[in-house]
Amino acid sequence: MDRMVTKGEMENQLSRVLTQWEREYLGRGSVLVKSDILRNMIIVLMKGILTPAEQTLAKSKDGLLSVKKIRADLVESGREQLGQMIEQITGESVESFYTDISTQTGERIMVFVLTNSLEKRWS
Fold first, then answer.
1. How far apart are CA 111 and CA 98, in angstroms?
2. Rounded CA separation 81/99 (Å)
3. How many CB atoms neighbour CB 26 within 10 A?
4. Which of 10, 39, 59, 92 could bridge across to 114 with cysteines, CB 3.0–4.6 Å?
5. Which of 112, 92, 108 has its CA nearest to residue 41?
6. What is residue 123's predicted lDDT score, i.e. its pLDDT?
7. Treating both helix axes as pointing N-terminal to C-terminal, what angle do 7-21 and 79-90 enclose, rounded to 10 degrees?
8. Percent of the chain having pLDDT more than 70?
9. Residue 47 · residue 39 · CB < 8 Å
10. How far is it, in rounded angstroms, from Cα 113 to Cα 45?
11. Which pLDDT does position 2 carry in this prediction?
12. Measuring CA to CA, which residue among 86, 62, 90, 71 is closest to residue 25?
């Protein structure tokens, strides 16, 4: 019989899969990815996601808005694939998905809200 995956192992697996997705789908991966499971949510922090060109562009208000919109549109276009990957790892469907990017710090936050709590598995 397979042993149950720990919370830390699942969080680590989620981080690895999301990093791989970024590289394959967006053509560039984050410098650091940290995933945390909290109740029925997976909260993901990605650091170092902006290219040097995007960092320069984001120095003006119009450029900042442009970078945020393009990055949001890119991630949204892969939403279905992201949901499938999360479901494959967790066994739970993604009910909703939120994301935003900080052009000042070069960080992205993703929040996946699942149909059921994952934390109950480890309590």
1. 5
2. 15
3. 15
4. 92
5. 112
6. 79
7. 150
8. 98
9. no
10. 15
11. 57
12. 71
Q: Comparing C-alpha atoms, which of 123, 81, 71, 80 is closest to residue 102? A: 71
Which residues have C-beta within 8 Å of that of residue 50, sequence separation ≥ 6? 58, 67, 101, 103, 106
Residues in the chain: 123
Task: Give me the residue label for tokens 């949204």.
Answer: 76
Q: For residue 41, which amino acid is it?
A: M
User: Which segments of 33-105 does DSSP mark as H helices, in order?
Assistant: 52-57, 61-77, 79-90
What letter does residue 61 receive in the DSSP assignment? H
Token duo for residue 91: 């066994």
Show the CA angle centred on residue 5, arms to residues 116 and 100, nearest 5°. Answer: 55
Q: Where are the beta strands (DSSP E) in the chain?
A: 32-38, 41-47, 94-102, 107-114
pLDDT in tens, 24-44: 988 888 899 999 999 999 999
Q: Which residues contact 30 (CB under 8 A, 6 or more apart)?
A: 19, 22, 46, 47, 48, 49, 108
Residue 107 CB neighbour total at 10 angstroms = 18
